[in-house]
Amino acid sequence: MARVDYYNDPNAPKANSIAVAVSAFIQDDEGRILMIRRTDNDLYAIPGGQLELGETLAQAAVREVREETGVECEVTGVIGLYSNPNHVIAYDDGEVRQEFSICFRAIHTAGDLRTSDESKEVLWVAVGSIADLHVHPSIRLRLEHALGAGENVFYS
Q1: Residue 59 to residue 56: CA distance in whole angstroms
Q2: Which residues are catalytic?
Q3: CATH number at residue 23
Q4: Tens-digit pLDDT profile for the chain (156 aa)?
Q5: Which residues contact 67 (CB under 8 A, 6 or more apart)?
Q6: Is 91 part of a structural domain of the chain?
């Protein structure tokens, strides 16, 4: 399903739903960040997706990372809670979802990179190369928070 992200856009459609989503920020031993290139909007992002019934938030993050990248991980902390009503995601089925996402910090424990139905590319990206990628501002914000100094959890 195709999607369009609207971020601080006064012409964005009005949200008609909200769902709990998670994402995971993972670095390898060289400090590179695990990223995917999404199939639904062709943007680079950290892996993540929607919480499913019967799982915890951390379990959802681990599952989404596995499904989208082939990597196994362990959640080690929270980077931020993102609920900006000025960030909506419009899907081609008519759903317009207000952002509500928890971004976790995680460590790589096993697995080899592979693509999925949701990721057309999976790669480890050097921190200095992220600026060269087409990344949505909401994901850039998570990356900035993850790479920033301190242990404070961001929330909006």
Answers
A1: 5
A2: 121
A3: 3.90.79.10
A4: 688 999 999 999 999 999 999 999 999 999 999 999 999 899 999 999 999 999 999 999 999 999 999 999 999 999 999 999 999 999 999 999 998 999 999 999 999 999 999 999 999 999 999 999 999 999 999 999 999 966 789 888
A5: 49, 116, 118
A6: yes
